Amino acid sequence: MLEDILQQLMGGAHEMPPEQMHGHLDTLLQQAPDTHVHGAIGDALQALGPRGFGQSVAQAAQGMDPQQQQGLVGLLGQAIEEGGGSLSGVLGTLGLGGGGAGAPSGGYAPHDLGALAAYTLENHGGALQSILGQQASSGGSDVLKLLGSPTVQRVGMHLAQRLLGGQGY
Fold it and tell me: Nearest CA to 42 among 168, 138, 135, 159?
């Protein structure tokens, strides 16, 4: 079963329905050593780059409710803060508010969340990778779903590569 999942992810995750992809990724996340999970997330973020990551997050944000948006901003904010930055300062720099006022009353526009994600990866990528790795290792793909299908696909493919590379599972 695990071998079938690995082959599917390697052969065409982009053609897989999102629900199936998330299910497969959850299975792999449960089986894989934490070092593989962290490494696969790092590989995926590097492959996407800030622009691709921002586009992935903006795409995911189109279907988010305000609570999910706040969860995403909290996740990105944690990476910014751990990376030595200030979330309110970054929000202000990007024209998204700041100063501790919280989210705009109507929520954030998807492209604004994409801009925040791109900024976070570009300036605090190591902290972002660490936080995503910890959360994915302990909670499965739920945290990754906030980041959009292209990110989930990349993590799945990179994790499958690591597991198929003979590094054990």
Answer: 159
pLDDT of 13 strictly over 70: no
- pLDDT band at residue 111 using 50, 70 and 90 as cut-offs: very high
CA distance 163 to 2: 10
User: Cα(158)–Cα(140) distance, rounded to whole angstroms?
Assistant: 15
Q: For 34-57, what is each residue's pLDDT tens digit?
A: 999 999 999 999 999 999 999 999
Please count the CA atoms within 13 angstroms of the CA of 98 that sit on its side-chain side: 14
Q: Which of 53, 35, 45, 33 is nearest to 157 (CA)?
A: 45
CA distance 48 to 125: 12
Helices 110-139 & 66-82, crossing angle to 10 degrees?
Answer: 70
User: What is the radius of gyration, based on Cα positions, of the chain?
Assistant: 16
